[in-house]
């Protein structure tokens, strides 16, 4: 994987959520695919929430290509985020949900509609644009959310375990789709997971979040080959997929 | 959005505080005359008696409804929700047809040589208040009964509990939870009920504070006297309303009232008693309405033009005040990180009364503009404020849930401003918005309060016109107009509620 210049920078960022503190001070290069791994409650989602703009850092800065993005509201940041659930509005059709990625006011031109149709086809949802999310399977709902990511074409993609509820085979399928879409748009990916297999499957870098710190990203293979104590405690002695 | 909601909340506080401030300033210290003290005493006594009688009847009636199943039970329970929307003046017209001098009851008593029943004075006020509030109290108590877990009732049955044991171990504790809220709610409503006192009360022995305010302004034009009364009314009414607000949870409006009774209901005389109670209550609630229909239907075709003009005014008032209420309630409910005073602003109108606010506005505006010209705008404003707490209470939990479920998704997609309103908030909140709109519109349509202070001959709303027709003994026209009013009130409620449901589906 070719790695470009650093695009995402957490500059001595201190995150404080109701007394819980997390520090981060590192950069991520362009086009990187990084996993965020660590025990539950360690602050993985907090880290993504701060980058996405739902939580202002108590101190320090978050930069994209050298520009501080702190003052930007979530929707204007150069990123898309997928949450654990509620990634689609249940009262809007699949096509409308995807169209929101082009224009939040949904006043779509014929060209916009054609692009929505293309995104539906690209994610294997051709013909399902008129359905409501409740009429989709879990995998189809994930695909719809990814189709919107594709249309938004933001340079950074944050995944906060959006596929956690899917079965293993379906999850791998979604991760492959993420990899393909990120390859097409050249997006940098930061993905929260609690599953080392996911990290090894999709990512080349891994950020370990534990003990109030989000460590700088290190190569995923190397990390699991020689896990530091905090990661070893999380994985347990017996389960280590890299061995 | 954040600054907008704060500005609106500040405006509401100002709109409530300024009239009350004017009232306090004009009251020139509280020196209540003997007549005022009598009015205060009567106000408190009739409210306490109304609450006690309503709740005392509500307990056996709710128990009968909880443990019996019969054809029409669902309809009856729905009917119990109706008096909340029923214009008070229409209820009074119906009661006059049954209990009035030429009413059914007196016609039945006369051949038996029994003395005539009078609908005026204390007993009339009590009959009307029980008619209007027994259904509300019954629904509150019935909700308590339905909330007793089925497992506990089955356990009681397996232990061989007699009805007395059931009452002691399960129903008694439930009633101790539910009754304080029901008593306080009915007490607070009756404390500020103006239309009932205006039509059925009066005289030195049956004048409420609200009626005394009205008389001080309309007949004596003694504004500082009215202000002193309004201040007293606000003090007592405010305490009662806030107490009731604290003691009750949001109204369920019929949700979950049809769970089957999980154990065998007792037979014998208890079955007879339950049946008699249900029949009597149904008759008490239905007969006045049927009497109105019977008296009013023939005249419906040739109503005088004044009725249609008043109908137009009432409709405008209802629609405008509903729009204002929904705008206020929705903006406040959607406020992010609301400071505590924001919620207070939304429920503060509850602590005052239509007539007290009206007195303050009269004091503030009367030097500037002729009161008659302000009658309709002031009524729109006061109605909007008075229904705001209900709409806010209905919308707040839904708005919170919407924000918790979809707030971040909408933010991450840049869905903001009018797009957010159009694509997310209105469709997701359509159901509570429709229900709130229906409630506000029906309440405003039927309101007979502040309008009575301001309106001259040509500004009367439909409820006020009905009251004037009744006072002029034009009973048949009044009955026809009542029929029209109740039809429009329920139609407004139904249209808004059904519209919201359809938009949400």
SS summary, helix count of chain B? 21
Radius of gyration of chain A: 18 Å
Mean pLDDT across all residues of chain A, rounded? 91
The number of helical runs of chain A is 8
CATH architecture of chain A: 3-Layer(aba) Sandwich
Return the CATH class of chain A: Alpha Beta
Largest interface, chains and sizes: A-B, 23 and 18 residues
What is the domain total for the residues of chain A?
A: 1
CATH architecture of the largest domain in chain B: Orthogonal Bundle
What is the mean pLDDT of chain B?
A: 89
Would you tell me the structural class of the helices and strands of chain B? Answer: mainly alpha
C-alpha geometry of chain A? globular
Low-confidence stretches of chain A: none
End-to-end distance of chain B, in Å?
27 Å
Order of helices and strands of chain B: HHHHHHHHHHHHHHHHHHHHH
CATH H-level superfamily of the largest domain in chain B? MetI-like
Word description of this protein:
The complex is a heterodimer of chains A (243) and B (505). Chain A has 243 residues and is an alpha/beta fold. Chain A has a single domain, classed as Rossmann fold. Chain A has helices at 44-52, 94-99, 110-122, 138-152, 168-185, 196-202, 220-225, 229-235; strands at residues 6-17, 20-29, 33-37, 59-64, 67-68, 79-82, 156-160, 188-192, 205-210, 213-214, 218-219. Chain A is globular. With 505 residues, chain B is mainly alpha-helical. Chain B folds into two domains: 1-28 and 297-505, Orthogonal Bundle (MetI-like fold); 32-294, Orthogonal Bundle (MetI-like fold). Helices cover 76% and strands 0% of the residues of chain B. Chain B has 21 helices and no strands. The longest helix of chain B has 42 residues, at 371-412. Chain B is globular. Chain B starts with a helix and ends with a helix. The A-B interface holds A 52-54, 73-76, 80-81, 83, 86-87, 89, 91-92, 96, 100-101, 104-106, 148, 152 and B 405-406, 408-409, 411-416, 418-419, 422-424, 427-428, 504.
